[in-house]
Amino acid sequence: MAKFKAGLIQLGLKADTSLSPEKIRDVMTEAHIPFIEQAGKQGVQVLCFQEVFNQPYFCPSQDTKWYAAAEPIPDGPTVKLMQDYAKKYNMVIVVPIYEEQMTGVYYNTAAVIDADGKYLGKYRKTHIPQVAGFYEKFFFKPGQGGWPVFHTAYCKLGVYICYDRHFPEGWRALALNGAEYIVNPSATVAGLSQYLWKLEQPASAVANGVFIGAINRPGTEAPWDIGRFYGSSYVVDPRGEFLCEASEDKDELVTAEIDLDKVREVRDLWQFFRDRRPETYGSLSDISHA
Q1: Mind listing the pLDDT tens digit for each residue in 214-227?
Q2: Is pLDDT of 290 > 70?
């Protein structure tokens, strides 16, 4: 039986946004450490944080101040620190941060660290929104690194980030590349997306025969106050059933036991992969919506 314990951490903003991004990073990282320690002591084997976990969601602004929040991967301070915690607790850690590839080129990225502390690689957010309150194209270049699946100590792990979740193609690509568990670190506020939050990802888990861990931050963030981040982080299985769920408004670690045998069980039952007709889909990416 291939089982492991998954953990998700959601955490509200702990620093005033008038501070420097470097100072905010220090405060938010420090605030996460007790939850990381708690996860390690509870035997969590695969841990993930929320989108750009050590900063506010600064995309309601178009302020170049926030470029200073970006750091190199894997040589920046945050990934280096999380490598230490991964080794300490023999725990895979997914670290979503603002990445600086070079001066002026920045990505919304998640680094993946294996249980021995080894850096395995990264996923860069593919789909970048640009609507009122979510000016992400000002801050993030779209990722073009394909759909990597990381062979960790406990599972074959995929990453999709926030707005990506609205696009079914990436879920399918990750599953076809071998993912068994896919995490989706997010920063999303109440409104239409809250209805979609418990609809899209369970449906994607069923359609692709995978486990999905969805992480969202709680609370509000001044001075932008674009809405209430509603937390509600959860893990869902390949049948679309919830294995755990966090509150809407609290800092919280939630955990779930994942039985990877269920991936085979559900895929053998539904046979969606067998019955796909990829030879008929070739023109889909060529169809213009103009």
Answers
A1: 999 999 999 999 99
A2: no
Note the CATH number of domain 3-275: 3.60.110.10
| 74 cis-preceded (ω within 30 degrees of 0) | yes
| Spatial distance between the Cα atoms of 66 and 289, rounded to a whole number of angstroms | 34
Cα gap 126→207, rounded to integer Å: 20
- Surface-to-core class of residue 14, CB atoms within 10 Å of its CB (0-12 exposed, 13-18 middle, 19+ buried): middle
Query: What separation in angstroms does the CA of 226 have from each of 58, 119, 251?
Result: 10, 35, 20
User: Using one digit for the tens of pLDDT, what is the confidence trace for 140-159?
Assistant: 999 998 999 999 999 999 99
Sign for the CA dihedral angle at 229, 191, 166, 181 comes to positive
The owner of tokens 């506010």 is 56
Structure tokens at 115: 């249980």
Contacts of 207 (CB under 8 A, 6+ apart): 168, 171, 172, 272
**Positions marked catalytic:** 51, 125, 162
Q: How far is CA 190 from CA 8, 187, 193, 197, 230, in A?
A: 20, 10, 6, 10, 6
The DSSP secondary structure of 63-125, one letter per residue, reads: -GGGGGG-B-TTTSHHHHHHHHHHHHHT-EEEEEEEEEEETTEEEEEEEEE-TTS-EEEEEE-
The rounded radius of gyration (Å) of the Cα atoms in the chain is: 18
Q: Which tokens in the block code for residue 215?
A: 């992480």
Which amino acid belongs to residue 156?
A: K
